[in-house]
Amino acid sequence: MRSPAVPPRELHIVLLGQSQVGKSAFIVKYMTKRFIGEYDSTLEETYRKDEMIDGESVSVCLMDTVECESREWHRWQTWGDLFIVVYDITCSKSLTFAEKLLERLKQQEHSEREGRRVWRLLLGNKTDLERYRVVSEEEGRRVAALHGALFAECCVAGEGRSVNEVVQRALIQLVGKKRSPSPTRLCASDSEISSSQSRKSTFSVSLRSPSRLKESSKLAYLHKGKEAMEVIDNVLKRLYSDVVTKLKERAVGRLRRIQRPVRDIAREYAKARDAPSTAPLPRVISVTRMQRILRGVIQYRQTVRKELVEQFKEIKDNPQPKALMFTCMDSRMLPTRFTQAKVGDIFVVRNAGNLIPDACNYGHYSEVSCTTEPAALELAVKRGGVKHVIVCGHSDCKAMNMLFGLHACPSNFDHASPMDHWLRKNGHRTMKKLNERLYKGPQPLQFDSEVAPSQSFEAIIDPFDRLKAEDKLSQINVLQQLVNIASHDALKEAFDQGKLHIHGMWFDVYKGEDYLFSKEKRQFVIIKEDTFDSLIDELHRRCNVPLGECPDIRQGHFTPG
């Protein structure tokens, strides 16, 4: 009589590392042999794949983690058998972050896992970008050896062989060693995924109760039965029904797609409940994105609507916007908030990558463009009398990441994609400047304007090499758009008469810091209290206007001249 199939042994792999180093892409490439360049970096996911390692069937469970979720560290630590710490070979900052993770894993190996070995693998990703490499293979090996970790490099965007080889070699190391039982392992992997401090005591008691242990021991004699697996399944369901129910509830609760909106709505509901208001409390129902937006409208009506209506009335007859800002459509970019602009202060135009196409893309004289960017320039500058145009980019720009990826792997260009055409048509000059910066190092780059020579300048991008290549590209992109604005003949007269001034800004979405490009210092300068006066003085000299008409970059709004 055939014995029931033995379930494969589970091996748990946790991927750690800074955001944008390729953790999610690594997992998807391993699972599907496909490369996908864009992910939501705020979601944690778990994947499973069966493998044959040295003749043994193994179920590989991979967990994709979130960089900033330090509160989840204990759960990752107790769940994983192998920790793959990923860094980007084009970004030295990501290696520094990875080294801190390795050190933390090494310190907690004995304190939290009671002697069970923590297998660590330091993985350098993006070897397809060899020409942009800033972290040598020798440096990676040195860091790995220092922390007792294995080392490998791979290319997620290229052929899948290197990704599979990395996982296979790591699994061979794990399968070759016996797995020591840990008291933190209470039951199946599903319960481990939903682990928490409160779970340990509750589930330990329910799983180890004498009655259950006595009855479940009978299962050992069923291995020769014809319907053994069915009998075992029924017994387990009967014995552990309450535990299974709890696990399902906790698994649902752990899904970030549900947990985060629920938490946000609960917080908003609590605020509305505690706030002194005669309006009835909104009923909290099932959460959708549109419901959150509509709830925001209700909150706006109950709070700031009355004040804004008064401001609308004030500027209705005499609107005097002081600037036009081109910025990215990224949902994290809130220009009126981080500049503290008032109603009517700034025209804002948003698109993918804060790109303003060069005039040669539109035609001259007899050819009239009907696209947004030149129309906005005419409306604000020629018809609205605006004297300041600002281009504001930001870190971790998805459009710039895509442009960088298209340049690194031209074969990924999709002829049916409007986004790919938009980036290729308007981003090639920016990419040429990035190649020059990466090849020559932090040397001055020349940005020349033929139509308005007064708007030419030099720039030193990231002089201390603290930014990854994509963020360098984002800063270069901001400055290239200034040149593109100056290329339009319709603005030449305003430039020649000193009636129009263009500025480059850059926003760090992780630190919440604003930077202004200083033509005198030839680099982006952080806007804060001790740099404010020098930046305003430079604007006064460069714009040759009274201080009252210079953009008040500290307060964020534009004081009338």
TrEMBL record:
<keyword id="KW-0479">Metal-binding</keyword>
<feature type="binding site">
    <location>
        <position position="394"/>
    </location>
    <ligand>
        <name>Zn(2+)</name>
    </ligand>
</feature>
<feature type="binding site">
    <location>
        <position position="328"/>
    </location>
    <ligand>
        <name>Zn(2+)</name>
    </ligand>
</feature>
<protein>
    <recommendedName>
        <fullName>carbonic anhydrase</fullName>
        <ecNumber>4.2.1.1</ecNumber>
    </recommendedName>
</protein>
<feature type="binding site">
    <location>
        <position position="397"/>
    </location>
    <ligand>
        <name>Zn(2+)</name>
    </ligand>
</feature>
<dbReference type="Pfam" id="PF00484">
    <property type="entry name" value="Pro_CA"/>
</dbReference>
<dbReference type="InterPro" id="IPR001765">
    <property type="entry name" value="Carbonic_anhydrase"/>
</dbReference>
<keyword id="KW-0862">Zinc</keyword>
<comment type="similarity">
    <text>Belongs to the beta-class carbonic anhydrase family.</text>
</comment>
<feature type="binding site">
    <location>
        <position position="330"/>
    </location>
    <ligand>
        <name>Zn(2+)</name>
    </ligand>
</feature>
<dbReference type="GO" id="GO:0005525">
    <property type="term" value="F:GTP binding"/>
</dbReference>
<dbReference type="GO" id="GO:0008270">
    <property type="term" value="F:zinc ion binding"/>
</dbReference>
<dbReference type="InterPro" id="IPR027417">
    <property type="entry name" value="P-loop_NTPase"/>
</dbReference>
<dbReference type="GO" id="GO:0003924">
    <property type="term" value="F:GTPase activity"/>
</dbReference>
<dbReference type="Pfam" id="PF00071">
    <property type="entry name" value="Ras"/>
</dbReference>
<keyword id="KW-0456">Lyase</keyword>
<dbReference type="InterPro" id="IPR036874">
    <property type="entry name" value="Carbonic_anhydrase_sf"/>
</dbReference>
<dbReference type="InterPro" id="IPR001806">
    <property type="entry name" value="Small_GTPase"/>
</dbReference>
<dbReference type="GO" id="GO:0004089">
    <property type="term" value="F:carbonate dehydratase activity"/>
</dbReference>
